[in-house]
Design a protein that fits this description.
This is Heat shock protein Hsp20. Keywords: Stress response. Belongs to the small heat shock protein (HSP20) family. The structure is a single chain. With 152 residues, the chain is mainly beta. The protein has one domain: Immunoglobulin-like (Sandwich). It has 2 helices and 9 strands, in the order H-H-E-E-E-E-E-E-E-E-E. The strands form 3 sheets. Strands 1-2-7-6 form a 4-stranded antiparallel sheet, with no helix packed on it. The longest helix is centred in the N-terminal third of the chain and has 14 residues.
Length: 152
């Protein structure tokens, strides 16, 4: 049987957010480059002009088994399932993956992680693009011999 690598189509995000297209492309590129199996599945949402959310399906993982690290322009999410030696269950079918994972996201310039929460088996990681004052657009005055004209 042939396996096809299916990556999510993030094209709608490219049209609606400036700066986020780079984040989405880097995330897609990293997933293909690292040979990720697509586990755990995740979504990337645009919540506002400079607000984003990564939602990962981490059913079966507790807060103690998840680790989120943000360093520079990389966001690393790890899940290490703790083996229960007293677990004597015998599965007839085990379709819920309980294997550990490590997923890396490349963050765009000035995108910071502001929080994370775990609810109903979904890990939500909130991101904000905070542009420094020095890089924001500012109004420049144009001087003439007779008067000053404001320009944008």
């Amino acid at each position: 049987m042939r396996k096809f690598n299916v990556t999510p189509d993030l094209t709608p995000l490219y049209r609606s957010a400036i700066g986020f297209d780079r984040l989405a492309k880097m995330a897609e590129h990293a997933a293909v480059q690292n040979g990720n199996t697509g586990y755990p599945p995740y979504n990337i949402e645009l919540l506002g002009e400079n607000r984003y959310r990564i939602t990962m399906a981490v059913a079966g993982f507790s807060m103690q088994e998840l680790d989120i690290t943000s360093e520079g322009d990389k966001l690393l999410v790890k899940g290490n399932k703790v083996a229960n030696v007293n677990d004597e269950r015998k599965y007839l079918h085990q379709g819920i993956a309980e294997r550990g994972f490590e997923r890396t996201f490349q963050l765009a310039d000035h995108v910071n992680v502001v929080g994370a929460d775990l609810e109903n088996g979904l890990l939500n990681i909130d991101l904000v693009r905070e542009i420094p004052e020095a890089l924001k657009a500012r109004k420049i005055k144009i001087n003439t011999a007779n008067n000053t004209i404001d320009s944008e």
